[in-house]
Amino acid sequence: MELLKKLSSKGWRIIAPVRSGNQVTFREIAEGADILEDFVQSTQSAKGVIFPPVEELFRYHMKKEGAELPEQEKTIPTTLVFGLRPCDAAAVNSLNAVFTWDYQDSQFKERLENTYFMPVSCSRADEYCFCTSVGGNPGDTRGSDILLTKLSTGEYLAEIVTDKGKKITELAPGLFGAEPLEAKEKNLAVVDRRFDARELKQKLETLFDSNIWVQQSLRCIGCGACAFVCPTCVCFDIQDEGRGNQGKRLRCWDSCGFSLFTLHTSGHNPRDKQSQRWRQRIMHKFSYQPDRLAVTGCVGCGRCSRACPVDMNLLEHLVQAMAMEVQP
Amino acid sequence: MQELRNKVKELLSKGTVQTVIGYGEGTAGKVRPVFITDPGNTDSLIFDLRCKQNLAVYLLKPEVKQLGKAAVVAPLFTLKTILQLAAEFQLADGDIVIIGMDDEGKLIEFPDLAAVEAFVTRYDDLSAETKAELDRIEKMPLEERWQYWQKELSRCIKCYACRAACPLCYCTRCTVEINQPQWIAVPSHDLGNLEWHIMRAMHLAGRCINCGECARACPLDIPLNLLTQKLIREISLHFNQRAGIGSKAENTLSTFKPDDKENFIN
Amino acid sequence: MSEFEPKIVAFVCNWCTYAGADLTGTSRIKYASNVRVLRFPCTGRIDFMLLLKAFANGADGIIVSGCHPNDCHYTSGNFHARRRWIVFRSLLDFIGIDVRRIHFAWISAAEGAKWAEFVNTVTADIKKLGPNADYRRLLDAGIA
């Protein structure tokens, strides 16, 4: 694509979806790479660009006087994430809400500042998608800097959403022309709304002691795949890795679904049953986070359900929860 | 399939078991594990060529044990798992009711584990395709093999789906979950991934029954089962031992023969 | 440019090889000084991951040595070790790690000369193979 070539020539790092075996994956691409557009969803989200799976927080060197922490030398390259779905871009708002809530996470902020999101609207969806139930839609502009919609003419409708998006147009002025005549909505997939996120939150508030969680989680094997492919999951672990006199402190992804996630040093584990962990996952995303941060912790991308080895199907479970009778 | 459903109805209505672990229809043509506790609900049970998930992973879960005595729908790989679990003293003869299923979906009655043993021993551990794939990798020059595995293993995100899906990874506290010391690195950097997968393959040496759940559960399609399949072949070659064929079998790495042969010790 | 001097880590059992290496010293036999010796009660105690940890910590080569079969101080530790190494070595080779960097031996407490000869051979072999760059490259890879 012309625009990508232009940006890459200015030293931008371009990340786009490519085929990897049977899957679609986000990779840093070089010129001439085969960027995919005709797919429903990638296996992994693009959250790794601003919240990497393994990230160095600092490194240390033990000296006679004490520990020395050298200044971080790494620079975050200006990055464009192209070709992700609108739901993935909307997920950035959820990540941002968590990482800039009370403590301002400087590493996250620096990465986000240097990253531009250019999703392409969805012309197709599958049975796992449910963006419209959580406040999104196949042409959602939330979280995008520029949202592209492919039109039947082969051209793209570009919605410049943010100032960062405007910056991109200024870098490649020739590629952005006048508004096309075709309407955006004609080219979007249809995703039926299966529930209302606000109603779900209210319903969940009545279901804490329900035994629906036991029934739903029986087949869950506690594997963690859902959390790791999810674009809004943020649980992380901090590991110190030392070798002799020096070492690094790393931050890495974790999952509340792991059995020992909440193990206390005392030995007590408040969530030692899979049903409690399953309940926590749903409550956190659809009740606690909306309460605390005013952002739902799910964008309806469906990845968790697609990746789940035992077909937990989040949408199905949420619809079932909505149908539960309120406990007196 | 009807034979299966009738059997399950009988087991539940007679109270022989309180729950039956089987297969049911899932999303978009997938198959999912189901737990039937009501004899009136047996129509949700299915069995066909899609049923490849190893349900034995549920047999040792406390959440499932809580439901009472269980029966499990057991195709070949599940049968082998049950034998291996018995050999490791995790299950005793009669703890669970085994609803054997052959390749054609026909029910097989197994009155006890000895009957299961007699059934499974006739089957090869590794298919021809697997052997061919192992050969293909073994024939690569060293540097190419290293690049192949680095490419595959560097993609790992340490989600531990492989561990969770494996019925033989039943440790309530896995080695990676002990941090005094943190023996295997937790983050998914290249070194951590390599150490994890080598360790996992070694901890399954002589125990893996080749159900392929690890590779099937991996969200990134990493061919993890190749590592354990390689060890299945080596162990069979060197020690003439196979996993999952005897409920009283010896474990490869905790036993030895004084005349074990090797060609690399000076 | 100085010649590459490999770092070799030796995992040895206390009763045979360690004593044998001691004999090498008291016999005043000169041999290559590249080896750092780690003493274990028995080769049966050597966890396979320890070898990988040695590589991760900068070893270019590894020696594993213990009592001859039937001579183990704890009767059967070395038998268990032998089995473990057969399995582990084949896995490492399959994954593409150069198993020529790991040398195994049975060296008894009386074999002082054999220890010296063995260390010299291993040092020369590892020198030829060069530094263990492939493995060490992993240490910083995959971290943002």
Which secondary-structure class do the elements of chain C indicate?
A: alpha/beta
Unreliable stretches of chain B: none
Tally the structural domains of chain B: 2
**Largest interface summary:** B-C, 48 and 37 residues
Low-pLDDT residue spans of chain C: none
Mean pLDDT of chain B: 93
Rg value of chain C: 15 Å
Instruction: Please identify, by name, the CATH architecture of chain C.
Output: 3-Layer(aba) Sandwich
Tertiary shape of chain B? globular
Oligomer: heterotrimer
Strand order of the largest sheet of chain B: 2-1-3-4-5
| Number of helical elements of chain C | 5
3D architecture notes:
The complex is a heterotrimer of chains A (328), B (266) and C (144). Chain A is of the alpha+beta class and 328 residues long. Chain A has one domain (2-322). Chain A is built from 10 helices and 10 strands. In chain A, β1 and β2 (23-28) form a beta hairpin. In chain A, α5 packs across α8 (274-293). The radius of gyration of chain A is 21 Å and the shape is globular. The model of chain A has no long low-confidence stretch (mean pLDDT 91). Chain B is of the alpha/beta class and 266 residues long. Chain B has 2 domains: 2-120, no CATH class; 128-254, no CATH class. Chain B is built from 10 helices and 5 strands, in the order αββαβαββααααααα. A 5-stranded mixed β-sheet of chain B has the order 2-1-3-4-5. The radius of gyration of chain B is 20 Å and the shape is globular. By secondary structure, chain C is α/β, with parallel strands linked by helices. Chain C has one domain (8-135): Rossmann fold. Chain C has a 4-stranded parallel β-sheet with strand order 2-1-3-4, sandwiched between helices. In chain C, α1 (14-26) crosses α4. Chain C is globular, with a radius of gyration of 15 Å. At the A-C interface, β3 of A face loops of C.
